[in-house]
Amino acid sequence: MNKAFGLLFILIFNITFSQEKLIPLTTNPYISKKSPVQTKNSHNIDSTFQSFTYGNINLPVWDDFSINKFVDYNLGYTDANVTSILYYQLMNSGNTTALSSSIQLCDSTHARTDTVVIENGIELSRGTSYFTTGIPVFVNDLNSYPVNGQTKTLYNECYVLIDSIIEGVPDPTQDTLWFIGQHPDSLPDFTQDSARVFFGNMNNPNNIWIDDYACHNYRYAKNPKSLGVVTFDGVSNDGYPYEWGSANSYGYADVLTSKPINLSGKTNVYLTFLYQAKGYGNSPETFDSLFLEFYDPNADKWFNVGGITNGFGVDGDVADDVWYTAHVPITQSVLLVDGFQFRFRNKATLTGLLDHWHIDYVNLRDNSTDADTIIDDIAIVEPLNSFLIDYSAVPWDHYSNLSNPNSVMLSSADLTVSNNHTSAKLQNNGGLLIDGNSFSLPVANANWNVGLNPYSFGVNTQPYVFPQTFPGDTMASFNVKINVATSSTNIYDVNDTTYFNQEFKNFYAYDDGTAETAYGFEVYNARLAYKFDTYEADSLAGILMKFIPSNEDISNNIFLLTIWADDNGQPGEIIYQDSYFQPHTPNYAGNKNQYQYYKFNNNEFVSVPKTFYVGWEQVENEMLYIGMDLNHDHSDKIFYNIGGGWVNTSFQGSLIIRPVFSTKLNSTLTTKENNDEDLDLSIYPNPSQDFITVNGISNTDRIEIRDLSGRIVLSDTGNRFDIQNFANGIYIVSIYNSQNKRIYSDKIMKY
């Protein structure tokens, strides 16, 4: 979206039906974290990764984005592809040998003799002479890389001698001002220090892309040609906008850069790729552009190949949701060398998840022709995420209590397979793998026809039904792998397979965990209700919700969490509602698989029938920005009331609202031990995949996390802790005060 349209954006972009709205996201909830090793220490370079080397790759370079081919910068210091150099601050004059670790030196400002002449109580003059025992020392600057230094004359004497001549008579007593050990501030100017700098060798030829500003995903494109695309927008690789604030902020945004490629001696080299505007995102405006750039390694220069006016159709005439093919020859002799690179860039509004372009099937090869644009590949188009009717996740207790689990399984699972060639292809049997158990999938027909092929297979018959017993009996997770086998002539088979985890925890979910838009109302006292038909009547412990950050901070706006009974297919009698004295506010959890947990007033449980509605009554007339998953449509379950009765939503999608039940898992997770102190401590999110935050902890308290064997896996201070490398399971969290007294204990689950 260009600057000319910026001021109009707020007025005309929001899709509005009867006061309900969808808005584009400010942050990217598909991104779970940014790579930590790229963040340098602002004070010194110790223990930082300072550079990465990339081995040049050879043709062909191909990526359909069905798997992640981005360089992974999450390196450990002891990884096999990591090297390091230890730099010392103080070296001999030749910069070849480190000085002693106990050495203490000063420069001439603190190693000298001052002669002071005083008459009538007034200092008339001061002369300075320097010690003659200075030594040349090469001093390195350990605050920045590359490490540079210079030779300085330093002194072992870290003091100033003061000779006084008072009224023409030398004072026989010589005063000494020491700079070592006399008081807390009396320190030498130079002591030995060191910094170890790390370097990553990223030569894995299976990784193609050296940056990750564009988002690799499986959800933002419409009718992709294969599993996965890469998406360009106005959000950086940390999931947040390049610039907060004004809708007029506009400029270069994402970039996707290849590794260096060896084109030496190659002929008839072509770069082909597919691209689409909008998809499930925001439509780019006329000047919101996608660029292709080539790198000339000899001139060390990037230059624009195609863009707004002369490229591959990115000129304002591109229709939303349509896949186009770009086919670009590389004929310049200066580019046909070892070290060539190419990259994609976009210009966009920099304040949100806006102006979407999606790229697929990138293919750089030689011995090609102008007409060589056909993709000889058969691929699954979009992943599955559940074998259950309606739900992506349900409570384990509810599922394991069913007398007939077949009743909640899909009668058939529906995949779409794309034949991207120009002729039909033979089809073979596919395969299904559930937790290592292998089953054959049927052949739907004799051929994969050109274009999209619906492919369905039965689910709710043995042996596809998930078992109802599982070790631990509090939760279960089943790994599912689905392969649609294709003809032996199919060139690329990685996109013939899709995976998902069927989760059974303590909540119901319609969504896949990722929001493509935000939903809400700008009406005082608007009510939102989300219908759930559950497997059994039970007690609700709380609600998981994903509110999405926006340029407008509404985190202080209150709403009344509400539960309704069913009344002939619409929300009926209120079962529970917050009081105005204890309302809730939107707390943000923008990343993928992160949610905020909302408890009921007084931490009570709420008994609900099998069919009930979860939602809120808002107080202000500002949107609360609840996340909506556009890839799974459960709009028949979404109702709103702005004063004229309950109405079914006009939008297709699933809200990211998940009711949590008081199952065995919930009881395990909420067993707490509070000692004598009156504490207001809480840990969220729980369960968690990446990080936990402890509210109410002081900076002198220590957190200790143990696994169920009693082994300490984390001991630290602070209030936010990284658990993403923990094995899935239950952990005991203990908090100790400054006297090492345990003041709090809780259980968390890592999944």
Main traits of this protein?
six-stranded antiparallel sheet; 751 residues; 5 domains; 3 helices; globular; mainly beta; Jelly Rolls; single chain; Immunoglobulin-like
Word description of this protein:
This protein folds into five domains: 3-35 and 57-71 and 206-372, Jelly Rolls (Sandwich), CATH 2.60.120.260; 90-192, no CATH class; 380-505, Immunoglobulin-like; 517-664; 671-750, Immunoglobulin-like (Sandwich). Helix content is 3%, strand content 41%. Strands 4, 17, 18, 21, 24 and 26 form a six-stranded antiparallel β-sheet that branches. β40 (559-567) and β41 form a beta hairpin. The relative contact order is 0.11.
Question: What's the structural blueprint in terms of helices and strands?
Answer:
Blueprint: H1 3-12, E1 15-17, E2 20-23, E3 48-53, E4 61-63, E5 82-88, E6 90-91, E7 104-105, E8 112-119, E9 122-130, E10 135-140, E11 149-154, E12 159-166, E13 169-170, E14 175-178, E15 190-191, E16 194-201, E17 215-217, E18 229-232, E19 250-257, E20 261-262, E21 269-277, E22 290-296, E23 301-306, E24 324-330, E25 338-349, E26 357-365, E27 378-380, E28 393-395, H2 396-400, E29 412-419, E30 425-426, E31 430-434, E32 437-441, E33 447-448, E34 451-458, E35 476-483, E36 497-505, E37 517-521, E38 527-533, E39 538-545, E40 559-567, E41 570-577, E42 596-599, E43 606-608, E44 611-618, E45 626-629, E46 638-641, E47 647-648, E48 654-655, E49 657-661, H3 664-669, E50 673-674, E51 682-684, E52 691-695, E53 702-707, E54 712-716, E55 720-722, E56 729-736, E57 742-750
Parallel strand pairs: 3-16, 8-12, 28-36
Antiparallel strand pairs: 1-2, 2-37, 4-26, 5-16, 6-10, 7-15, 8-9, 10-11, 12-13, 12-14, 17-18, 18-26, 19-25, 20-25, 21-24, 21-26, 22-23, 22-25, 27-29, 29-34, 30-33, 31-32, 31-35, 35-36, 37-45, 38-44, 38-46, 39-42, 39-43, 39-49, 40-41, 40-44, 45-48, 46-47, 50-57, 51-52, 52-55, 53-54, 53-56, 56-57
